[in-house]
From TrEMBL:
Belongs to the prokaryotic molybdopterin-containing oxidoreductase family. The keyword Acyltransferase does not apply. This is Dimethyl sulfoxide reductase DmsA. GO terms for molecular function: iron-sulfur cluster binding; metal ion binding; molybdopterin cofactor binding; oxidoreductase activity. It comes from Nocardia macrotermitis. CDD domains: MopB_3. Its EC number is 1.8.5.3. Residues 8-65 form the 4Fe-4S Mo/W bis-MGD-type domain. Signal peptide: none annotated. Transmembrane segments: none annotated.
Length: 661
């Protein structure tokens, strides 16, 4: 808890948005109203600063379009017409529909669909205690594949964990590679540590991003070719004898075999694959060879490709070849999630499932809703997600959600594109209105979020919503009625919860990386049907045209904030950046209205002609609401295809034709 003075108090909170930084904040409460919010000064990563989006969080909390009451659809699906109803009526209708569906089709006909809108462990989707409710009903499992699954799987093959370097150690690096990551937009707090190091910085990105602009050097390879580049850089290092023979002998498995793989990727061959000049590859290889330690920041963007899992698996081998994994300030940082030892199984309680059930993939909403049979999906619970805006194959998602026989419940803060397809909408609390904690995936801090104010209208927390629904359905399992306080103590067992609560944040002890040895040869990968050795898997879109990258927007967080007037104004209209050569070949000039299309769908944009993108590549951003952009966003063009590992998504592995409108 914070400290009180007169009529105002400060209360610790934490940002639960899907951002690596997991910021800690203080809410100033006066007379029961949140009047201020600022980044926690004492938090070593937040350092008193939030970001351009969350600086407006209280404006969001009080926004005119915030959903404050339960609602029932009155128009057709997609129309977005609702009437206000009482909680009692809403719960009654949901209980009745669910009961009927379970009886007729079995529990598996229910798809609980938690998204990434809230990463809290109690109210959000990391720990997802409301899975207990769905387990009792025998509902289908939900595989969270949309964001980071492929890269995490790839890193686990090499390192035994996806949790890599402590990002604070970037302050001790000699060379920093910002590889397929745009932290100045997507999680800016690591930047200060990089600046503190004084290291030479190299951005590797097909687009000259905000981050690339600020680096000492920028390499723009073709998308999806990073594993080849990594192998080429290792080739340069090994042929110059700069590999760390001691580390390789002591800490790795399969060096002899992997060395042969590296030798196949000569700089010349890699130049052909990546579209980079051979001298630039050799130069960077030599720079890595002579700079100890070298740190790689790679994040999720780079693995949204057919070979995205393999990319991370292979890139993590580079600091093993140089021995940098053993030096403070060396290695690779992707996500620190693997370092936390939270008792999620006790929260989710899969032991409550009456029998084994099928798993539905988060990225395959179209297939799940339109093709799954035995049983078909008859009820969908969307919780902190916006699949119409966020998922691939937007047209199929909309077609699936339009099914008249599908009962859809959406728990939300705002009237998103997905809300428009709900049968029942339930109003949810926002971060200052419930108690929870986050475990940052871009640093090693747990951050506490104490309830600071009462929610507006009739908003309820996720857990309270499901406690009431369980009661309404007459479910007797005691685990469904545990209090948030009990849930918190369960998942945080082993951590000093009282200290976390009074100090606002707590740094955890990381696990060793690698967990045991670096597995160049991975029996685990082989058993899963993959190449036993790290290698290169090429991009997979069989289409033609430019490769379209739709990365993180600066002023939205995924589709969150997508209706905030000021952030929408700053984001501007839908734009697509095209290289001057590609623009000329298509009769497109700066400002030309264009149609961006492929076999899956199309969306409208305004052309921006710039060498910020390399030839062959186009760039736009994710996060727009379809209802504000003529009914379709970039996600209308993206395939519901799995990447190589763990069913990851392929958002940036997307070929499109661009023509003037
Ligand atoms: N402001 C803001 N912050 C965010 C988000 C947001 O929407 N807005 N989203 C949050 C979420 S959910 C996530 S997962 C993270 C994502 O954040 P990042 O991991 O940074 O991912 P992206 O923005 O998708 O892509 C990062 C960079 O990778 C480049 N890139 C794409 N494909 C390739 C490739 O094949 N090779 C290389 N070398 N580069 C490539 C893109 O051009 C882009 O500049 O950010 C989080 N933070
Ligand atoms: N084209 C393209 N599309 C992408 C990506 C890309 O790179 N390119 N990236 C993908 C990635 S990395 C991700 S993670 C996904 C994200 O996709 P989603 O998981 O759909 O995330 P959001 O779009 O942020 O939508 C989250 C919703 O949750 C709501 N919400 C937030 N907190 C709470 C809460 O506490 N309770 C309730 N009930 N609701 C809450 C917000 O209001 C918001 O509408 O998008 C993916 N989509
Ligand atoms: S979105 Fe990221 S940078 Fe912004 S406040 Fe939340 S955690 Fe911090
Ligand atoms: Mo994400």
């Amino acid at each position: 808890m914070g400290w009180g003075y007169d009529r105002w108090v400060k209360v610790f909170g934490a940002c639960a948005l899907d951002c690596p930084d997991g910021c800690s904040w203080e809410v100033t409460v006066e007379g029961g109203v949140a009047v201020g919010m600022r980044g926690a000064k004492a938090h070593p990563v937040t350092r008193g600063a939030l970001c351009v989006k969350v600086n407006r969080y209280l404006e969001q909390v009080n926004a005119a379009d915030r959903i404050r009451y339960p609602m029932r659809r009155v128009g057709r699906k997609g129309e977005g017409r609702f009437e206000r109803i009482e909680w009692d009526e809403a719960l009654g209708e949901i209980a009745e529909r669910l009961g009927g569906i379970v009886e007729e089709y079995g529990g598996e006909a229910i798809w609980p669909f938690p998204g990434t809108g809230n990463l809290g462990y109690i109210q959000g989707t990391e720990g997802f205690p409301v899975r207990r409710f769905f387990n009792v009903l025998g509902a289908s499992l939900h595989d969270p594949t949309i964001c980071s699954a492929a890269g995490s799987a790839g890193l686990k093959y090499t390192l035994g964990t996806a949790g890599g370097m402590d990002p604070e150690d970037f302050a001790h690096s000699g060379l920093v590679l910002l590889w397929g990551t745009n932290p100045l937009t997507s999680g800016h707090h690591i930047w200060k540590f990089i600046q503190d190091s004084g290291a030479y910085t190299v951005a590797i990105d097909p687009v000259r991003s905000r981050t690339a602009e600020r680096c000492d050097e920028h390499l723009a390879p073709l998308p999806g070719t990073d594993a080849a580049l990594a192998l080429g850089l290792m080739n340069v290092i090994v042929t110059r004898g700069a590999h760390d023979a001691g580390y390789l002998a002591e800490k790795t498995v399969g060096w002899y075999e992997f060395r042969s793989r590296i030798m196949e990727f000569t700089p010349d061959r890699v130049a052909g694959i990546t579209g980079l000049p051979v001298e630039r590859i050799v130069e960077l290889g030599e720079r890595i060879a002579r700079t100890r330690p070298t740190a790689i920041r790679a994040s999720q963007g780079i693995q949204r490709h057919a070979g995205g899992g393999m990319a991370l698996r292979t890139m993590a081998c580079l600091p093993a070849v140089t021995g940098d994994w053993a030096i403070r300030g060396g290695g690779l940082h992707y996500s620190t999630s693997g370092h936390y030892q939270l008792d999620v199984p006790s929260l989710a309680r899969f032991d409550l499932l009456p029998n084994p059930v099928r798993t539905l993939s988060q990225t395959r909403v179209g297939a799940g809703l339109l093709e799954a049979s035995d049983p078909p999906v008859k009820a969908l619970f969307v919780i902190a997600a916006n699949p119409v805006g966020s998922n691939p194959e937007q047209r199929a998602v909309i077609e699936g959600l339009s099914r008249e026989d599908l009962f859809t419940v959406v728990l939300e803060h705002f009237p998103t594109d997905t809300v428009d397809y709900a049968d029942i909408v339930l109003p949810s609390t926002m971060q200052p209105e419930h108690t929870d904690f986050v475990a940052a995936y871009g640093n090693l801090y747990l951050a506490w979020n104490e309830k600071a104010v009462e929610p507006p209208g009739e908003c309820l927390s996720t857990t309270e919503t499901f406690r009431r629904l369980a009661r309404r359905m007459g479910l007797t399992e005691p685990a469904l009625y545990e209090s948030d306080e009990d849930l918190l103590r369960t998942v945080l067992r082993g951590y000093d919860i009282d200290r976390l609560r009074t100090e606002g944040f707590l740094k955890i002890e990381p696990r060793p990386v690698p967990i045991e040895k670096i597995n160049f040869i991975s029996p685990l990968a082989e058993r899963a049907g993959h190449d036993p050795l790290p290698g290169y898997t090429p991009p997979g879109d069989p289409g033609t045209g430019l490769i379209l990258i739709s990365a993180a927007p600066h002023y939205f967080l995924n589709t969150t904030f997508g209706s905030n007037p000021e952030l929408r104004r700053r984001t501007g209209e839908s734009r697509i950046t095209i290289h001057p050569d590609d623009a000329a070949a298509r009769d497109i000039a700066e400002g030309t209205p264009v149609l961006v299309a492929n076999a899956r769908g199309s969306f409208e944009a305004i052309a921006e002609v710039s060498d910020r993108v390399r030839p062959g590549v186009a760039a736009t951003t994710k996060g727009r609401w379809a209802k504000f952009t003529n009914g379709a966003t970039v996600n209308a063009t993206i395939a519901e295809r799995d990447s190589d590992f763990a069913g990851g998504a392929v958002f940036h592995d997307n070929r499109v034709e661009i023509t003037p409108r």
